[in-house]
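If you are new to this repository, start here. Below is one unmodified record pulled from the training split, so you can see the exact layout before writing a loader.
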Amino acid sequence: MAEHGTFYWNELMAHDIDGAKKFYADTLGWSFDAMPMADGLTYWVAMMGGRPVGGMFDVKAAGMGQSPEGWMPYIAVDDIDARCAKAKAAGASILREPFDVPGVGRIAILQEPGGAVIGWMTAAEPQGG
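And here is the target side for that same chain:
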């Protein structure tokens, strides 16, 4: 599990997913693995040297076409539900209440009192042993 309070993941919310994949493949050497989502959409996991380094999804296909294109960072937290309660008490707005992504973890999207938007996540426990 990622260490609490550290940046854990970054994902690009793209308007032109094919163009974004081409740009990062051409400039950084990333390859992309498709990860089908429950809603029928595809999340693209950026790979470098056989390991995941980030992700991206098509905001238009997700029905969020008015959202600006940009990178969304996620910070690892030890207990997403408890930390969201603390964030609310400290003046944050929860833009997307905690939700589960099978095999990935539990995620929430917050807007901190200063206005910055950030993702928080509690990663799923590794399977097997």
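Two things worth knowing about this chain: The longest helix spans residues 17-28. The chain has a mean pLDDT of 90.
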